[in-house]
Sequence to fold (397 residues):
Amino acid sequence: MLSPSSDSPADDVIRALADVADLVVVPHTRLADLTTLRIGGRPRALVECRAAEAVTAAVGALDAAGVPVLVLGGGSNLVVAGGDLDLVVVAVRNREIDYRTVEAGGAEAGGAEAGDGDTGPGGIVVRAGAGLTWDELVADTVARGYGGLECLSGIPGSVGATPVQNVGAYGVEVAQVLHRVRWFDRATGTDEWVSPGALGLAYRTSVLKNADRAVVLEVEFRLDAAGRSEPIRYAELAGRLGVTPGERTDPAVVRRTVLELRRGKGMVLDDDDEDTWSAGSFFTNPVVREGDLPTVRSRVADRLGVEQAEQMPAFPAAAGGVKLSAGWLIERAGFSKGHPSSSSPARLSTKHTLALTNRGSATADDVIALAREVRDGVRQAFGVELHPEPVWVGCSI
Ligand SMILES: Cc1cc2nc3c(=O)[nH]c(=O)nc-3n(C[C@H](O)[C@H](O)[C@H](O)COP(=O)(O)OP(=O)(O)OC[C@H]3O[C@@H](n4cnc5c(N)ncnc54)[C@H](O)[C@@H]3O)c2cc1C
Fold:
């Protein structure tokens, strides 16, 4: 790590950026104040960009000078090392929202560029600045009576980060409702609209995750103008709503119900609830080969009995794989809610074993030690490898 006060090419670029419109350079800052896990050291500077053009100017100039950049949205999917960080944080803060009606055949009224995605006749497309808070967008679409985003209510962070890990919850992923993305390609310096196909969207990943390939500037989503939710696929949500799985219903009721369910699991940010001081689910649900499933079940049976082994959740996944539940495996490996103790600075949420939380004084090392303990414990118990979901900056598990 270099000292942010030492002279570097970054200083010249940062000085020059101060003249760019819609851009503010904030010299002394800590990532602990900008991340939901509340850990992270001091970058060389924070550059806040309130327009897409300011983002491209900042990232373009820093890339040209070879200065390491951390593109920041809401900081809700980051684990950042402490100390002095040799990087400049570019915070994406453009927040505009614009709705367009889509005519039959997919042409957009209102002067938009031609769309690539199939919006169907009489649909609505919403375009949002990457820096807008995601849940503000969801709330706005639902308040206008449009369906599509309601199952993704309450996910922290920015609009621009949603395609980065193809965010998902309660049976819906961004990939299902994404129309187009405007990105700044950092290799070519091009500012362009791309279709979802260019993003390589898959379970909690895309070509943008853990890569410096492009910065998302704006995102368009397809909405249901008739006010129907996405089909309700998640059994727990369908049960709460009293609908048959696959049915569509009122987006406002779905949003309310999803927020209730999420709050119960500590998955809605709340300054007064330390169970939400996290990066959300810390591990993705592991996908194993179908042929390996009997071995996992027999390891579960050896440890917990045949009944538990039969009840272990397992769902079909892409490429013939089987998706297991990380939370279920963590609990059955012996890590209960709140592990290791109420006095530990980093501990599992008391509401949800999948969230690693900072109780106020945890460092990155505390979080990493807990993450390793859980990952290694699950591997030892069941032979299943857990992979972290957040992006790591200056540290790793
Ligand atoms: C309590 C809680 C609950 C959560 N629940 C869910 C959930 O249900 N489902 C889910 O999928 N996730 C969930 N998450 C994880 C997180 O909210 C999402 O991944 C979210 O999309 C991250 O957005 P962000 O703006 O905070 O990204 P950040 O944490 O700021 O950044 C994450 C990564 O995206 C990159 N990035 C950010 N903005 C851009 C941009 N404009 N262009 C290019 N790259 C960018 C960053 O460089 C970084 O690599 C949860 C997190 C918390 C704390």
In short: The first strand starts at residue 23 and ends at 26. The two ends are 18 Å apart (CA to CA). Residues 36, 70-78, 92, 130, 155-158, 160-162, 164-165, 167-169, 208, 215-216, 267, 269, 276, 278-280, 391 surround flavin-adenine dinucleotide (CB under 6 Å).
